[in-house]
Amino acid sequence: MKRSFQTAVLPAFLLASFAAQSQTYDASDISFSAFAKTACTPNSPGVVTPPRAGDNCNLQPEVQQVTLYRLFVCTTKPTAPTSSTAANLTNCAPLYSNSAGQTITVTKTATSALTGTTRPANATYTHAYVEISPSWQVKAKATFSSAMSDSNGTTSGTQCWSIANAANNGNLFNWSIRTQGSMDLVTKCGTTTDSTYAATTIVTNSFDGSSFVNAVTNAPISNGGTTSLTNKLDTYLLASSGFLATPGNPAVNNANSVSKIGAVLTLPTSLTISSATTGMTFSVNNSMGTQIATQSGVNPSRVSFFTTGPADFTLTTTP
Asked: What's the pTM?
């Protein structure tokens, strides 16, 4: 089975507004927008062509959930965390910071409020820094133009969906044992979804599916899905100290001392906040927010899991 894991991943729109010269944000919402990008190939309305066995494709999940801890804007690029130091945010201003975090739920039809935001000082900002939980809840389904089967080939049909993992305390680790025929069962297939349709909890314990990788730098992203940009995103697995996670004996199906994911975004254009600024939108598009991973060498092809997919980023002010 081909292993492919996306690293530039965060949930959708964090939106906050504030009065001119005010020092606090009003509570606002989470939303998303469908930007154009590579996706599962449509076969007919609501139906997609299965990806080639062993390959993957992306579509929008029904529900995506993650915990947000910190969102900062910075006048210079933060120094990356190391095994003995946290990211240097000296030249950054908080938009949101909460050690307990706030669960952000993104759906196709509803939004949830982000509370406790603050107004950054008037300045020109060139970067953003975000910290989120390493665990994601992804609830997704797909209708295919031909029959597919679940993670281990026990059910089949043209519709497949995510289910909760009965193993590993309900977690599906990004770096895990993926022996064909005995994988964690986190998908089901049939003619239509049933009562098992639920979110799968994905835990990022590595940025790679075959070994421990705690940092990915210069990851390409796009500006709202419209303009390709490169060398714009750095992502890090962080220990509870805020240092780069460096477990002594990293292993599959193990949290590997990862407490959070930190990300440094280089803004496509600098962002100026002035006394006239009345709002700010930090958006992370999830229109392709779930990846359908499949297995090769079996017929029908198996949907291994619905995991997190790539993301697009924008950060703008009003006016």
From this structure: 0.84
